[in-house]
Design brief:
Helices cover 10% and strands 35% of the residues. By secondary structure, it is mostly beta strands. Strands 4, 5, 6, 8, 9, 12, 13 and 16 form an 8-stranded mixed sheet that branches. Strands 2-1-3-14-15-7 form a 6-stranded mixed sheet, with helices on one face.
Length: 209
């Protein structure tokens, strides 16, 4: 790594500093649902438009204060599968969920934030199947659950910073199986995919521990 390069580190904005109730949104409709996704245009709805019932639903833009991002720093988490090169994502495991108070608290924060997103959409607990959770659990409930996190990739480059205290010159491809990381992750929008809504976490900064 060039000594003059500035290393962008995690913000250490842990979940106990994030007030879920302060998250607001703006609701956008798609002008023409018949065009391809890449050609779609959106316009802001008036405050009375119900997101759940909007047949032209585009997305909800989330805000935390004036920021169009809800950012939080994770605890140190394990990546059991490493980097998924097919869809540019990683799974962050809630390791020791039952024994580790910090991990348990973070898990409950993520879960509460998903319920809050449902409330913004107007979904009730009976409509939970209409919202795609990013908390993933194996079918037999043998292992600790994972949080699915996307690595933003646009214009042929990754929009994620990564660093290590032990090694220089690391990159996204150094996220190997069972490595440990602490990450700045963020939510920005809630989209509708088919008949379900989804708010995908994305990673902004990765600290290889």
């Amino acid at each position: 790594m060039n000594k003059k390069s500035k290393v962008i580190k995690t913000k250490d904005l842990f979940h106990d500093k994030v007030d879920i109730q302060k998250i607001k949104y703006k609701h956008f409709s798609c002008k023409d649902m018949s065009v391809k996704d890449c050609d779609k245009e959106y316009e802001e709805c008036d405050g009375e438009q119900d997101p759940k019932g909007n047949k032209k639903f585009g997305y909800l833009q989330l805000y935390y204060g004036r920021s169009p991002f809800v950012i939080v720093t994770t605890p140190v988490m394990v990546c059991p599968f490493g980097l998924n090169k097919e869809n540019w994502s990683v799974n962050l495991q809630f390791t020791g969920l039952k024994e580790n108070p910090e991990m348990k608290s973070f898990y409950e924060f993520i879960q509460s934030l998903e319920y809050y997103q449902m409330s913004l959409l107007g979904l009730t607990k009976d409509e939970i199947d209409n919202f795609v959770s990013q908390i993933k659990q194996d079918k037999k409930n043998i292992y600790d659950p994972n949080l699915l996190v996307k690595i933003p990739f646009t214009y042929n480059k990754f929009n994620t910073d990564i660093y290590s205290d032990a090694y220089s010159g690391v990159n996204i491809f150094n996220i190997n199986r069972f490595c440990k990381v602490r990450c700045d992750i963020y939510l920005d929008k809630i989209w509708k995919v088919g008949d379900v809504f989804v708010g995908k976490w994305k990673v902004n900064t990765v600290h290889l521990v």
